[in-house]
## 1
Amino acid sequence: MTVNVMTAGEVAKKVINKDALFILDVRNEDAFADWKIEGDNFDYFNIPYFELLDGVEGIMEKIPSDKEVLVVCAKEGSSVMVAEMLAEEGLTVSYLKGGMKSWSEHLEPVKVGDLKDGGELYQFVRIGKGCLSYMVISNGEAAIIDATRMTDVFLNFAESKGAKITNVLDTHLHADHISGGRSIAEKTNTTYWLPPKDAEEVTFDYATLEGGNVVTIGNTAIDIHALYSPGHTIGSTSFVVDEKFLLSGDILFIDSIGRPDLAGKAEDWVGDLRESLYTRYRELSGELVVLPAHFMIIDELNEDGSVAEKLGTLFVKNHGLNIDDEAEFRRLVTENLPPQPNAYQEIRETNMGKITPEEEKQREMEIGPNRCAVR
Amino acid sequence: MDVTKVLDAKGLACPMPIVRTKKAINELEPGQILEVHATDKGAKSDLTAWAKSGGHELLKDTEENEVFKFWIKKG
């Protein structure tokens, strides 16, 4: 019948609302096995587009008639072709605009809380890749933490809130995605804060972010307290915002903990990771709401699409915080680690300013899930 | 290598490199070799998987100056 277009934003809404959707993914089988659009009520059928060049008759019985159907491929072209073939067979289907590339890049802003004196804290959920960025807004000023490469989203959002960006911070040197921090700081002529121990090889100027630093946003002092918490990287720093929120970077997630092997040797940093999680975080209030830099699985999303949980709850429920035996903890985070994120060495070099790939190359480098955690 | 036919698929986006390759290979006899030039970054994984599923043999592939070249023997 007809072919419709569905945007990544529309798919994101379906994930958050737990809507039903049938996804016909026409990428290669290994690409599908590696990374796909996850949703609680999504059903899937994967067949590479090149198996369908002679027609779609063979798969018609696999396509349900009582569900919305979305055809997905890497960049869009093949999904349009397959969607048109299905339409000729009498189905009404959609294709994903921009394919998995646009799914990887979509950011969904979700408000996670109010700060004192009218301030607000927003989480930007990169739902396709599992990256989380943050914006602290107070009295016409904004700070951005762990920004992704899609800098326009942050610049436009701050403008829509009438806020001037005054500080840009990264909790650590990222290995799974290209940071937008430096670019935003350059465009807005503001300070870019990085933990110096992660930044020894960077080729640009930055402000050194160290434990005990206080960055104030707005006149009413929504303070960001930096807390040194190494383990995922040697420089990893957490932030306590407004004494209410703990931005844990890649140290602590909702249902997992940070892996220590992406920037060095796991054996070297496992002790730091344990110290950060089992000693430094234990000294903080259990009432703090943990806001991590990633999620791994869609179950970690709350009803409103946010990723947040009280520290006290995580001390009870997060398996990685409940391994009493140090040797067992050491085994968990150094053995049987999942594969590393796609192109993680090149991504680290990009974030250090050592290489500057073209935008298309940057997109390719970021394909796939973030893989920064160990469960 | 005794190449029977050369297909220029440079500048074409997915799915066209495979669509053209399939058409070109249909015009060959089993055992003959098709050389394909493409610039689409997905071409390598797609052509490899396509050749395998179609019973053809990917003899060799190279990348030079952002041009991918493939030599496929019809099965």
## 2
Amino acid sequence: MTAVIERDIELLEPQPDKAPGFLARIPRPSFFSWIGIPALVFMALVFIVPLVVILTKSFTDPGPQNFSDAVNSGIFRRSLWTTIKMAFFVTIVCLLVSYPYAYAMARGGKLIVAVLLGALMLSFWTSTLVRTYAWQILLNNTGVINKTLINLGLIDEPIQMIRTNFSVYLGMAHVLAPFTILTLYAQMRTIKPELEQAAQVMGARPSVAFLRITLPLSLPGAAAGGILVFVMALGFYITPQILGSSRDTYIGTAIIQQVQVFLKTGVGAAESLILLGIVLLVLLVAGKFIGIGRILGLNKGE
Amino acid sequence: MKPGFTVKAIGLLMAAIFVFPTIVVVGTSFNASTLILFPPKGWSTKWYQEIFTTSKWTDAFQASLKVAVLAAIIAMVVGTLLAFTAARGKLIPSSVVTMLAVLPVVVPTVVAGLGFYIVAVRIDLSGGVLGLALAHSVLGVPYVFINVLAALTAVERNVEEAARICGASEFVTLQRITLPLIAPAAVIGGVLAFIGSWDEVIIAGFLNSPTFHTLPVIIFGEVRSGAEPSTSAVASTVTLVSVLMLGIAAGVPALRRKKLWRKS
């Protein structure tokens, strides 16, 4: 008997919640449906059309062999490997440095939070180009770091830092770490400090409390930030171009080279599509597990 | 639990590393010597005098400013319209609108830049303010869209309903109630779009011409071929403009709130 009543209630229940009454009360003007159309047309014309043009170029200028040309090009194949390796290392570095920073920001006192947030924002809003230029000044053979080390008598000859993987990884991590820090910080703010305190009351050392409580609870934020940084690193052009060795070509450089140096727009278009394909694939696969909205930071409004 | 000493120390060290490069660029721009030295040897503002009087830099400054302002205005209009459609419209599923609005974040700039380049050359929009502003505006749309959408979902429907009950028409409700409530979000989105355009190198490089280039394109060229203290001065000025814009964007809503408080 009770089971039947419960089922009946279940059947009845959704109805009062459903919108009709609500909708009748508030007139939802179809106006809002229509004003979006010019904006959607604008986006289609200015953003989708260029992407479609890349697609057609890659298959018709001169033909689909652009893709085999791209894949068979030694430069492009090596650039894929170089770029993925770089993106991977940069992501790891960003995550490693983000944990202490985000933790201090989420749990620190007012003063330290203000200092850390201020430094982060100033860096974040200094453009990639300007920061990369700064690293060039710092890492040059005659640059600030080498000169200081020589003046201190620590080294005799300048250390080759610029135009190495080291300088690229450092510059990239410097540009991209704010993204992992901010996602990780947002995630850590949702973890109640009481949880850590409880663990410590039960006798866990601070490090154990962190490893067993904070770390696992913060992993979704770390994953989202890490994926975002990985995907952004794949398409980077400026930093590898200025700080990297001329022997190492990255995907962005390979594409621009095909178009502007070899004047093979079709092959460049094919390579662009391959890059876009990798980016979308990573986002879709990762999005299945942690949600695209979370990776792109779209959940703020919800 | 409070962060321990080590965590704080690492955090502060990293904060220093975050800020140091910006300080270095600003420092080298005040060099008295013609070499890029840090700490600078002797202080001088001659590089700033140079960049504000040389037509190469002043022309690029104007071009950058025109492009960024136009791009920000277009992004504000388009992004706000899309946010209204996603939040309130019923004609097109909001997931489709959202996807289209945030797609520019996902597509690598090199790829989008190549697309803009091929199209702009074909329809003769390359090498001018309008073409680059259109391209940059699309990159700014996601910022405006996300901010305005968040503001719209936070708007209490009761407030709009109250206006309607008091006899305001749909249009007046929108104009007097909804738009003022979302305006700060749209402005912040617009400022982010402005900075995105102001700093952008890759697309601006694709769409430049011998007579039309923006500041970042010239800076990039000089950094690759050999920078001078004047490059640092321009880079510092570019950064200062970005930071000032953000300061204004962050300050305006707070000021407005203060004013409202005083009135009531």
